[in-house]
Each structure stands twice: as C-alpha cells, then as structure tokens.
Specification:
Layout (H helix, E strand, L loop, with lengths): L1 E6 L8 H9 L2 E6 L15 E4 L15 H14 L3 E4 L1 H9 L3 E4 L5 E6 L19 E6 L1 E5 L5 E5 L5 E7 L2 E4 L7 H10 L1 H7 L3 H10 L1 H19 L1
Parallel strand pairs: 1-2, 1-3, 3-4, 4-11
Antiparallel strand pairs: 5-8, 6-7, 9-10, 10-11
Helix pairs in contact: 1-7, 2-3, 4-6
C-alpha cells in the first residue's frame, strides 16, 4: 500500500474524484487540512504528496500561515525525490517554491472546459505520456508565468499559457482540475457570478458542459492518477 498525503486548502476544494482514484489505485489517502488546524507532515512520513487547489494565491504566505511551510515541504519532496502532484493552486505553489513566477492572468479568468495542448516533451514523460487528446476543467485567475530552472512545459493553451509542467524528475503540476465536477465548480461559480455577468459568460452553459463531459473527464484523468500511485509505489 502506498501512503499519499493530500493537502486541502479549504473545504470548497476537496480531493473529490482524485481522492477516489488514488484509493482505487491502491493508495492510502490521508487528507491534511492546515486551514482547520492540521499540521503539515514531514516529507519522510509518506510515499507521495498531492497539493490541491484553493481560492488563495500561491504568494499569500502572510495571509495563510501554512503557505510558506508548504513551499518548504515541496522543496523537501523534490530533494528526496518523493512523487509530488500539484493541482491548480498546488501547481502554482510548487512553481513559486522552486523559484518560478505566479501572476494574475493578463487575459482574465479561465473558466470551463479546455483542450489540453500537449507539447512534444509530454510524449517522453513518465506520468503523462500516452494520455492523448483530452480536455480538462480550468477555473483560475492566476497562472505560472515563468518556470523555475529545470522545469519542463508539458502542455500549454493555444495562447501559450501553461497547463501541465514537470517541475523536477518526480514533481508535476496541472493547472486544470481533474478532481472537480459540476457540483464543486458550481459552488465556485456562485462566488464569481457578478464578474461572469459583467463578462457575458453563461454559467449554466459552462456547468452543463462539465456535467455532460463526466465520462470523458474520468477516462482522461483517472489514468494520470493511477500512474502517479504506481510511480510512488
């Protein structure tokens, strides 16, 4: 059995499907909730680490007491070659911890289903190779705008925005949300309602599209999570 610690930043961003897939792949999942008072574990006490998304920023060290220590935990994992996966904010925290840059997306918030623009380097990556043409949910204001030294872009949008990165030999980040469904995203959408009305975005259509894509999203992202557990084992 492979012990996987999942860091959750807030109740509205749970492990959800990723947690289920980790367990189905043979992982023993322990959710660490520093927002609720849990202490972050030492890097030597588990086999793999997953860092989830959240509404805070990757540079909000002074606003959320665990962000700074989490960045050190990321560096410890990379130094120990412990498999590490960041999702949305988690992806951005890894980048910031290793010397990259995270900023507001100048093109505005990304919402809805996006094609994953795999780069040539993805074909040789031990986590994502062979995943094929997939889509994923994006719901984010911030982006990794400059990679840390040694990192490799594995997927980008047509505008060049980073979607999937290998930060170190066994550390990856995905800007997308493989864990989410229309119910989780619907709660996020409630908080963005006024902004989306101003932009002319149809939230009902966005959420409906996500709901209809459930089988597609399962088939696209379950293999990534399964492979992550296999690498950790």
């Amino acid at each position: 059995m492979t012990r996987v610690v999942v860091v959750e930043h807030e109740s509205g961003c749970p492990p959800a499907y990723v947690g289920t897939w980790l367990t189905e792949a043979g992982g023993v999942v322990e959710v660490c909730r520093p927002w609720a008072g849990d202490e972050l574990p030492a890097a030597s006490t588990y086999d793999a680490l997953v860092v989830l998304g959240g509404s805070m920023g990757a540079n909000d060290d002074e606003l959320h007491h665990w962000i700074g220590p989490l960045k050190q935990l990321v560096r410890d994992c990379v130094a120990a070659d412990t498999p590490l996966l960041g999702i949305c904010l988690g992806h951005q925290v890894i980048a910031a911890a290793l010397g990259g840059t995270v900023e507001r997306n100048p093109h505005g918030q990304q919402v809805g289903l996006f094609d994953v623009g795999w780069q040539a380097e993805a074909a040789q990556d031990e986590l994502v190779a062979g995943l094929g043409a997939v889509r994923g949910i994006q719901w984010n204001h911030d982006l990794v705008t400059a990679l840390p030294d040694g990192a490799t872009a594995l997927a980008r949008t047509p505008q060049g925005e980073l979607q999937v990165v290998r930060f170190a030999p066994r550390a990856w980040g995905v800007q997308l949300h493989p864990e989410a469904d229309e119910h989780i995203v619907g709660a996020w959408a409630d908080g963005d309602r006024e902004e989306h009305l101003d932009r002319g975005l149809d939230q009902a259509a966005l959420l409906g599209g996500i709901a209809r894509a459930r089988a597609e999203l399962d088939a696209a992202w379950r293999p990534l999570v399964t492979r992550f557990v296999e690498l950790a084992g």
